[in-house]
């Protein structure tokens, strides 16, 4: 009888401590879950250094990619071509754009030669935009007062597959 009482007492202690340990594990799990879910995992500092450096003294080493426009800001000066004044344009439909003027010239001559029955030479505007990475040339079609007018004309236009309307006043 005494053994039974001791065993029963030990069994109660084991059960109490097991439940207490289980409760402690659950509380620790909830605290750690809350802590790790509400904190930043990593912080990326703001990058303030230069992205690239082109040395002035190369000491005989060949530096690759010196001819890239983004590094040298090469100006493509095209002479003997009459670019249109785009300050008068509101909304226009872009037909073609390229950074190589020879491709622009080929496209324009091909367009005017093959579509001369439908396209008036006065409705075509050729202009360029200089940026940090170079010069981009554009061929656009007609000047429209509003975006809706240009969009309606896009639906009827058969010389391009999909229309891109440029707002040149912004």
Fold and architecture overview:
With 170 residues, the protein is α+β, with helices and mostly antiparallel strands. The protein has helices at residues 2-37, 69-72, 101-114, 147-156, and strands at 91-98, 124-131, 134-144, 164-167. It has a domain at 81-167: 2-Layer Sandwich (Alpha-Beta Plaits), CATH 3.30.70. It contains four helices and four strands. A four-stranded antiparallel beta sheet has the order 2-3-1-4. Strand 2 (124-131) and strand 3 form a beta hairpin. 8% of the residues are buried.
Number of helical runs? 4
Regarding quaternary structure, what we see is: single chain
Extended strand count: 4
Give the overall form: elongated
Which tags fit this structure?
single chain; 170 residues; alpha+beta; Alpha-Beta Plaits; four-stranded antiparallel beta sheet; 4 helices; elongated
Short description:
The protein has helices at 2-37, 69-72, 101-114, 147-156, and strands at 91-98, 124-131, 134-144, 164-167. It has 170 residues and is of the alpha+beta class.
Layout of helices and strands, plus pairs?
Layout: H1 2-37, H2 69-72, E1 91-98, H3 101-114, E2 124-131, E3 134-144, H4 147-156, E4 164-167
Antiparallel strand pairs: 1-3, 1-4, 2-3
């Amino acid at each position: 009888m005494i053994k039974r009482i001791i065993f029963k007492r030990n069994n109660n202690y084991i059960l109490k401590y097991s439940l207490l340990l289980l409760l402690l594990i659950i509380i620790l799990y909830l605290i750690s879950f809350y802590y790790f879910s509400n904190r930043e995992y990593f912080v990326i500092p703001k990058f303030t250094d230069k992205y690239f450096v082109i040395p002035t003294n190369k000491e005989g080493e060949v530096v690759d990619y010196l001819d890239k426009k983004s590094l040298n800001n090469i100006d493509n000066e095209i002479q003997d071509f009459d670019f249109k004044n785009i300050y008068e344009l509101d909304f226009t439909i872009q037909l073609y754009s390229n950074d190589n003027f020879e491709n622009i010239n080929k496209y324009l001559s091909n367009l005017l030669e093959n579509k001369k029955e439908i396209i008036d030479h006065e409705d075509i505007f050729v202009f360029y935009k200089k940026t940090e990475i170079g010069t981009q040339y554009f061929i656009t079609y007609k000047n429209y007062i509003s975006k809706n007018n240009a969009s309606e004309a896009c639906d009827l236009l058969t010389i391009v597959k999909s229309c891109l309307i440029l707002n040149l006043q912004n």
